[in-house]
């Protein structure tokens, strides 16, 4: 069941089905009913525990579904929602966008509706009870075609509009432009020769014969779309073109029939035909440009193989459709083929080209145990891959969804355009009427005044206003994706250009994230192996990078750590547990200070290691009286990424202040900061406190971007104005962040800020030109300073120029690498030379 509206009117009462999750008993029902009935505009609410649905009857005018959902959530329950992607056909300008959005927003149960002219798509968030057919019907009542985007046409339907238009239709459009131009040329060419004293104008009957098919055959689309707009009590570009060209054509027929006996009257068939031809040409060029703007989506879609070669249990291979591959299957990939799934290499060695996924230009070596990504191109060797991600859960599918989401969304700046578009066509119609009435009264020449009004109608450019922002966003997010920068939404794109501070997590972001054990120090000389064994016992079951480094080094030293029990993680500080009956803890310098551990003779050695940039962990035995006795310390080193210093330099060149945000001790953090040229350091910050530090920076007036890669970075990524996640990290970080970097190169942070600035600049340029065309052109046309042909050419040019200007973003490239500014060993030194060497 969906939603019903009495009489179907905008102000009629309606019943909204609200799905509810979490109710368990009759008291839950009463609580939800009470919460819903407290919402202004709700007449009655009836909750059904069995169906987990509330039927809400509203007063005329309805109630915003978001308020109902909020009321249920405040009562302690959840309201499931669903996002629908619709393909919209027939939109031509910003006025169409506003009309479709209003039609969708009026559907009971719809929370938000965002329509994008450039992608010809609508993103609708609604209660889960809303039937998609209801949304389609609402769009059709508004005068447009609509269909749901399914998996088969998914990426294009959500993110590329013109990219899904059949080739046959594109050919028909091109032929229509060509045929209209052939018929119009004999009418326009003599006008161009008149200034030279050449009178080659065809007779009136021939002008009529040439102009009529252009007006009513090739221009039929404007009449159809204009009629639909009028039927929906709205206006759009098509209505303006239809009215303007019909006025010029009708005036010409009137002049021909009523004044032919007085000689050849001045006719305007060339104006009506030329305007329609130029507008058709402009729409064709615009469609081509929009198709180029969606190259990124099509390139990503082309990476998806349709079939995969699955290895059976007996070792034989069978080729199956990709949809039949399951997680855990062994997939064979021959040299030169695209990888069909995400997975782990089980057998074989090769080099893999991931350039279209990550922007990495050089092939990457892969062997047993390495992860590979579906869509990458296999090089010289055959591989056997165990599938870990297939279908919608693959990395490629997630990349496509992110790019689609960004291209289909609206930037906040678009709100200004939407307000203008809502009144644009009515204002233009009023100006045209005033131009005709005022011109006829002032000059007494009704014919000239009518032509001025025609010029006003045809020069108005609502389509340029509608395309200015989405065209730039499509081009900007597309070129960013080709270089390994995935921008989740338009808001992140628009905010990134204002970033003043970038806060970097250290491990895995500025460093390689593979720390090694550098030194083991014992409080009692000669007991280093015991310290290592006890530490390895506490860390045996941990997946923390430092824990893995301890365990791996203990194995390399031939140690078999004893079993540990009652092991407990100390969030952001370390771990504690029992080993051979002894209660031990291993943790950071923060934990050392909290437990007032006396470091004794190791203090000097610890200070020296911190000065070298080492990360320290202290091992101690807890006594029954609450005190702890030092057993030893472990020092870790993690190599700085070769591009880290260059990344910091590029950000500073952009005027961005860099902050190092880490849980490491102050000495290690300061050593890294000195090597990288970072001025501000926040050390010994617990994971839970990273978000607080970001909040403090924002409270000081900064616009903050947080860069991280781990689960513990997710709160800070969410708290920042712009979260930037390394795709080499965890899925949680990627889902939280507004921008994802597909390879672990910190230089991409500066590149992301730069492409945001370039895209924002293009949006502003486009809006300037879109408004300029109208602000300058409409008054000139109203005062008779533009004839209809020039006005039509200007209108056609406006859309094409806006999209073409946006396409200049496709030429953007991240700055070329400057070489490795920091030696790989700068932050980590060398591995232990011998058994537990210092």
Shape, principal axes of CA atoms: elongated
- Number-wise, the strands total 30
**What oligomeric assembly is this protein in?**
single chain
Strand content: 15-25%
Identify the strand order in the major beta sheet. Answer: 18-30-29-28-19-26-27
Major sheet attributes: 7 strands, mixed
Supply the helix-strand structural class. Answer: alpha+beta
The helix count comes to 28
Distance between the termini: 72 Å
How would you portray this structure in words?
With 838 residues, the chain is α+β, with helices and mostly antiparallel strands. 47% of the residues lie in helices and 19% in strands. The protein is built from 28 helices and 30 strands. The strands form 6 sheets. The protein has a 7-stranded mixed β-sheet, sandwiched between helices. A 6-stranded antiparallel β-sheet has the order 10-9-11-17-12-15, with no helix packed on it.
Write the layout of secondary structure elements.
Layout: E1 3-5, E2 14-19, H1 26-37, E3 42-48, E4 53-58, H2 65-74, E5 81-89, H3 94-105, E6 110-116, E7 121-127, H4 132-141, E8 145-148, H5 154-159, H6 167-193, H7 204-218, H8 220-231, H9 237-259, H10 269-293, H11 295-302, E9 307-311, E10 317-321, E11 330-333, E12 342-347, E13 350-353, H12 355-358, E14 364-366, E15 371-372, E16 377-378, E17 383-389, H13 395-408, H14 414-443, H15 446-459, H16 462-482, E18 485-487, H17 490-496, E19 501-505, E20 516-522, H18 528-539, H19 545-556, E21 564-570, E22 574-579, E23 582-587, H20 589-594, H21 602-611, E24 615-622, E25 628-637, H22 644-653, E26 657-661, H23 666-676, E27 680-682, H24 687-699, E28 704-708, H25 714-719, E29 722-726, H26 731-736, E30 739-741, H27 747-782, H28 788-807
Helix pairs in contact: 3-14, 6-7, 6-10, 7-9, 7-10, 8-9, 9-10, 9-15, 10-28, 11-13, 13-16, 14-15, 14-16, 15-27, 15-28, 16-27, 16-28, 17-27, 18-19, 21-23, 22-27, 27-28
């Amino acid at each position: 069941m969906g939603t019903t509206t009495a009489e179907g009117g905008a102000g009629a009462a309606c019943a909204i089905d609200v799905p509810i999750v979490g109710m368990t008993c009759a008291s839950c029902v009463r609580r939800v009913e009470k919460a819903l009935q407290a919402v202004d505009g709700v007449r009655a609410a009836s909750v059904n525990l069995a169906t987990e649905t509330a039927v809400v009857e509203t007063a005329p005018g309805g109630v915003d579904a978001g308020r109902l959902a909020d009321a249920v959530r405040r009562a302690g329950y959840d309201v499931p929602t669903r996002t629908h992607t619709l393909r919209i056909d027939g939109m031509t300008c910003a006025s169409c966008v506003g009309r479709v959005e209003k039609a969708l927003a009026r559907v009971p149960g719809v929370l938000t509706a965002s329509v994008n002219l450039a992608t010809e798509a609508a993103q609708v968030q609604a209660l889960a009870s809303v039937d998609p057919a209801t949304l389609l019907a609402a769009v059709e009542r508004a005068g447009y075609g609509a269909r749901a985007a399914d998996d088969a046409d998914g990426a294009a339907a959500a993110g590329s509009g013109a990219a899904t238009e059949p080739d046959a239709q594109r050919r028909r459009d091109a032929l229509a432009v060509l045929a209209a131009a052939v018929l119009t040329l004999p009418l326009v060419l003599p006008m161009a020769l008149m200034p030279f004293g050449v009178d080659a104008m065809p007779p009136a009957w021939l002008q009529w014969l040439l102009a009529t098919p252009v007006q009513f055959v090739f221009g039929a689309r404007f009449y159809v779309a204009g009629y639909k707009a009028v039927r929906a009590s709205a206006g759009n570009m098509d209505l303006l073109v239809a009215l303007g060209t019909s006025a010029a054509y009708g005036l010409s027929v009137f002049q021909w029939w009523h004044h032919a006996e007085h000689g050849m009257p001045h006719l305007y068939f060339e104006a009506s035909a030329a305007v329609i031809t130029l507008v058709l040409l402009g729409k064709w060029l615009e469609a081509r440009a929009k198709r180029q703007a969606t190259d990124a989506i099509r390139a990503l879609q082309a990476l998806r193989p349709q079939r995969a070669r699955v290895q059976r249990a007996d070792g034989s291979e069978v080729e199956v459709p990709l949809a039949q591959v399951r997680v855990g299957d062994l997939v064979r990939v021959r040299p030169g083929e695209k990888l069909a799934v995400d997975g782990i290499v089980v057998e074989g060695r090769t080099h893999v080209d991931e350039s279209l996924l990550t922007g990495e230009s050089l092939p990457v070596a892969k062997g047993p145990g390495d992860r590979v990504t579906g869509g990458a191109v296999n090089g010289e060797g055959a591989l056997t891959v165990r599938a870990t991600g297939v279908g919608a859960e693959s990395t490629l599918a997630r990349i496509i969804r992110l790019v689609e989401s960004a291209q289909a969304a609206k930037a906040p700046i678009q709100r200004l355009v939407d307000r203008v578009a809502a009144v644009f066509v009515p204002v233009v119609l009023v100006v045209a009427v005033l131009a005709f009435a005022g011109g006829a009264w002032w000059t007494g020449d009704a014919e000239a005044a009518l032509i001025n009004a025609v010029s006003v109608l045809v020069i108005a450019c609502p389509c340029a206003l509608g395309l200015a922002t989405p065209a730039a966003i499509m081009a900007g997010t597309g070129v960013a994706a080709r270089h390994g920068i995935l921008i989740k939404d338009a808001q992140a794109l628009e905010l990134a250009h204002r970033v003043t501070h970038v806060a970097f997590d250290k491990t895995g972001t500025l460093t390689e994230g593979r720390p090694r054990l550098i030194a083991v120090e014992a409080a009692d000389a000669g007991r280093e192996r015991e310290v290592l064994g006890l530490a390895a016992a506490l860390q045996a079951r941990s997946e923390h990078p430092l824990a893995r480094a301890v365990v791996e080094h203990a194995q390399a030293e031939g140690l078999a750590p004893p079993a540990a029990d009652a092991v407990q993680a100390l969030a952001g500080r370390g771990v504690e547990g029992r080993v051979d009956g002894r209660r031990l803890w291993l943790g950071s310098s923060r934990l050392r200070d909290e437990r007032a551990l006396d470091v004794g003779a190791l203090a000097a050695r610890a200070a020296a290691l911190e000065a070298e940039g080492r990360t320290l962990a202290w091992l101690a035995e807890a006594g029954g009286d609450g005190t702890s006795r030092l057993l030893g310390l472990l020092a870790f080193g993690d190599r700085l990424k070769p591009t880290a210093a260059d990344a910091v330099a590029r950000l500073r060149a952009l005027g961005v202040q860099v902050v190092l945000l880490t849980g490491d001790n102050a000495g290690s953090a300061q050593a890294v900061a000195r090597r990288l040229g970072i001025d501000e350091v926040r050390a010994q910050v617990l994971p839970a406190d990273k978000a607080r530090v970001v909040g403090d920076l924002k409270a000081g007036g900064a616009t903050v971007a947080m860069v991280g890669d781990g689960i513990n970075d997710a709160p800070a990524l969410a708290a920042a104005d712009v979260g930037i996640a390394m795709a080499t990290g965890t899925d949680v970080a990627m889902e939280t962040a507004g921008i994802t970097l597909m390879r672990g190169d910190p230089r991409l942070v500066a590149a992301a800020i730069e492409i945001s600035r370039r895209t924002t600049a293009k949006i502003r340029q486009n809006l300037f030109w879109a408004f300029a065309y109208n602000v300058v052109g409409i008054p000139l046309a109203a005062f008779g300073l533009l004839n209809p042909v020039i006005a039509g050419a200007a209108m056609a040019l406006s859309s094409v120029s806006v999209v073409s200007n946006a396409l200049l973003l496709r030429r953007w490239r991240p700055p070329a690498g400057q070489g490795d500014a920091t030696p790989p060993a700068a932050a980590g030194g060398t591995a232990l030379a011998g058994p537990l060497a210092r």
